[in-house]
């Protein structure tokens, strides 16, 4: 029956189920924290019940059977027959993992209904948790073996020759095939592929195979010893088996890779259809204007009509772009829902007690940004649990609660996605980090003496750097935090550290949301012959200051005074090393820009226009270039760099520190 099922429908069912199973981890952790929460247990029960029913529809009997036992345990918990304990949660989480593995195998094309040893162990744990009887439950195979014994006795008495008895035996055979399946005629013992081949070719019988399976040897060896098959027969069967395996491998290679998918609400699709309809109407207006222009009459009137049509077109394209951006947004829940399970498993592995909390998981961000940040977030949390939070006995000695705290928050601040990972552990000791860096040859003692603590703390991002005393399954190889920095930089973001010895650590990831937009609103500015685009959301005002407003201040360099406030001046021509038309602020245009709560001034030659820039990735060559979000093709066909104001401000601050 499985091969008769539409593959597309099956794959859709698998994707939906994998999403549902992925959301269960957080629910199981919630259940452990609140064992009496009936809403949580009912939500989990409904998910497993739905999976069981759908698996039966697709003839995935192994999944249906497993989910049924899983459901029984959940039902006992729901009815209060069993209490929620850490051991029960372990069993439930392990069972969920087994279900995920089963669906992965089906997704890979494995349509067999066999349970792996891991699946069987998980089922045994479920039965034990339900207080199963010491004696093993009677299986359908056992019942049919007893029936076969009774039929054999009837045959000896020649009673099976009677029509009524013969009809009953036929019905039993049909029932056997319905319950056990046509390949289970050996009393429920699965026949290996080699055995099937030997039976099909007439070398041995099914009874010979069943008898051989009772021995603790390879089937081929047993059949040769018993004289049931020759060595050539076995070699031929092995060859045929390998050919079948090769055919299966080829079939898997030919299987079309499943592309990335997203769920989109129907009303959003309807909105796109409406916009496309408006665009078609707009295109007809342009066609009409084209014909009018060809006639050469009423030019002034045509200019006005063209302006109106162009305004409508710009508005439609903006709405279309905004709609597409909304469609691509998904909740951070996709990442966050995996974290409670990870923290629970990791803390149990290293004998720590962690109270894990999170907020902001409902924040919507571009799907590509989630894919970029998942690995860094996981690395940082693992680092907090393993390196940050102390062992319970150590926390007690230092006057802390033996249960450590790890918190993850997410919010949008001035166009940035800001994710914070906070722990109340031992924090970072700058002096120890310097000593470790000297030991590894990353810095010299002379550099360490003058290195500020804030810079020393960032040594944890150096490749190969680790403060772990020994290598474990969790950490100690110096791999992880350097990956965090690399991946965050690729997303045009930054990582900040706030820590003190014994006071824990706050690690903040900030990534511009605009880096994932299709288009951004910006101001086109000129510096010499070059054009740049500055996102308009970061521009507060622009002006041409008087000469007396510009002065020089220690540690800030050149500044401009605006309404009794001093703002540092960044010269765009110096940053990108290009010739400028104006080098003095009172000749050019000073733009007051704000990012990350800081303000400064950007000196340019002139502001040319406001534009909707289509953001393009500039490739690997610009990956490490600070202050650049990407590129955009301007209306005249030239390319302009889209600037990251935050990156420019950080580079300027570092430059000023280096001059002090």
UniProtKB/TrEMBL annotation:
GO molecular function, one term: phosphorelay sensor kinase activity
Reaction(s) the record says it catalyses: ATP + protein L-histidine = ADP + protein N-phospho-L-histidine
The keyword Cell inner membrane is annotated on this UniProt entry: no
Classification via CDD domains: CheA_reg (cd00731), HPT (cd00088)
Domain CheW-like as annotated: residue spans: 519-654
HPt domain boundaries: 2-106
Record keywords, A-Z: ATP-binding, Chemotaxis, Kinase, Nucleotide-binding, Phosphoprotein, Transferase, Two-component regulatory system
Enzyme Commission (EC) number: 2.7.13.3
Domain Histidine kinase: start-end pairs: 313-515
Membrane spanning stretches: none
Protein name: Chemotaxis protein CheA
Organism: hydrothermal vent metagenome
